[in-house]
Predict the 3D structure of the following.
Amino acid sequence: MHHLRTATSAMVVWGLLAPALCAQQPSGPTPEAQKPEAEASAGDLAKAVQNPVASLISVPIQNLTDFNIGPYARDRNTVLQFQPVIPMQIGQNWNLITRIIGAMIFQPDVRPTDSVQAQQHLGTFGFGDLNPSFFFSLAKAGKVIWGAGPAFLIPTASDDVLGTGKFSIGPTVVALVQPGHWTLGALVNNVFSVAGPSGRPDVNTMTLQYFVNYNLKKGYFLTWQPIITANWNAPKGDVWLMPIGGGIARIFKLGAQPVNASVQAYWNVKRPDSIPSPTWQLKLQFAFLFPKGAPKKP
């Protein structure tokens, strides 16, 4: 159960942070300056969306579905995951990127029993834990863009099965490069429980997300963002959840409003041996983008 809750929070780490890192571009002319204005704008936004510490406010809404969990092969659905990313400047040299993840979740009943009652109790619906993170990054980035700070897990779940019940904290770090059409990097965090009911399991969980994005024309880009999860308190065979996969996304405008839409699918090649866990996941995202500091037209 802990792996399911962690994996859902982890899946949004990059997709939400990405809109907040990339405005820290090195100064000077770029190839994009030679492109038609609409194409250059879409390309710039695509790279910003792929950069967790850009000066770009992002308001993503996601739906995550984990398939084939437990003895009845039920599905876990994060019906509405709302995760605003807000950058702000601290002095002349630093930015602070704030990300807060909250979600409405349907958690299927995965108890290994053949009782009629268990089969008829499909699951629990409610609010999950809050997951705020704070990234400090340089206002003017070099070739390697990075950010670091604290991550938290706040026990706000409306039901025990929807959260950890523990207040947790730990470090989080992201680093990336953006050569040409590519964005390549990784994000890692590890949170440890520091308070909460003694009857609930302690939290010591790592999430590692590497990301590879290739930008195409007209705002399209291919994306691979699997998130590896490790529950260090679990028995040896239940520590790792390792997905592979990817998807496609596009930056476009609804009227004057820039948006980012994507669809991704991930197959879990490594799952816990004894903990019910999904075989694969489908991720749908629609994000409203609000670039900050963009030069105004004369």
